[in-house]
Design brief:
Strand order of the largest sheet: 1-2
Protein name: Aspartyl/glutamyl-tRNA(Asn/Gln) amidotransferase subunit C
Radius of gyration: 29 Å
CATH topology of one domain: Histone, subunit A
Enzyme class: ligase
Structural class: mainly alpha
Keywords: ATP-binding, Ligase, Nucleotide-binding, Protein biosynthesis, Transferase
Distance between the termini: 65 Å
Shape: elongated
CATH architecture of one domain: Orthogonal Bundle
GO molecular function: asparaginyl-tRNA synthase (glutamine-hydrolyzing) activity; ATP binding; glutaminyl-tRNA synthase (glutamine-hydrolyzing) activity; transferase activity
EC number: 6.3.5.-
Length: about 100
C-alpha cells in the first residue's frame, strides 16, 4: 500500500496546476511513493562529512577583477553616430506611443 494517498497526489497536482484523471491519480500515487522512498535511501547514504553541492565538480569564478581604466568620453563615443540626442544614440522609433 502506498504511503501517499490519492488525495495527497490530487493536492500536489492542484498546487502545480496540473489536471489529472482518476486513473492518473491512482497510478501516480504509487510512483510518487517510490520516488520518496528513493530520496530517503539517498539521505541514508549521505555522510555528515560530505558537504552539500549543486555540481559534481568544483566551480571557480573565471572573471577578471574590475579595474578602472581610461575609456571614451561621451562625445568620442557618439562622434560616429548618425544621430545623437542628449548624450545618447538616436534610433528610429519602433512604437507609436509617446
Amino acid at each position: 500500500m502506498s504511503a501517499l494517498s490519492r488525495d495527497d497526489v490530487a493536492h500536489v497536482a492542484m498546487l502545480a496546476r496540473i489536471q489529472l484523471t482518476d486513473e492518473e491519480l491512482d497510478r501516480l500515487a504509487g510512483q510518487l511513493d517510490q520516488i520518496v522512498g528513493w530520496v530517503g535511501q539517498i539521505n541514508e547514504v549521505a555522510a555528515a562529512d560530505v558537504p552539500p553541492m549543486s555540481h559534481p565538480l568544483p566551480l571557480t569564478n573565471v572573471t577578471r577583477p574590475d579595474e578602472v581604466r581610461p575609456s571614451l568620453t561621451a562625445e568620442q563615443a557618439l562622434s560616429g553616430a548618425p544621430v545623437a540626442e542628449e548624450q545618447r544614440f538616436g534610433v528610429p522609433r519602433i512604437l507609436d506611443e509617446e
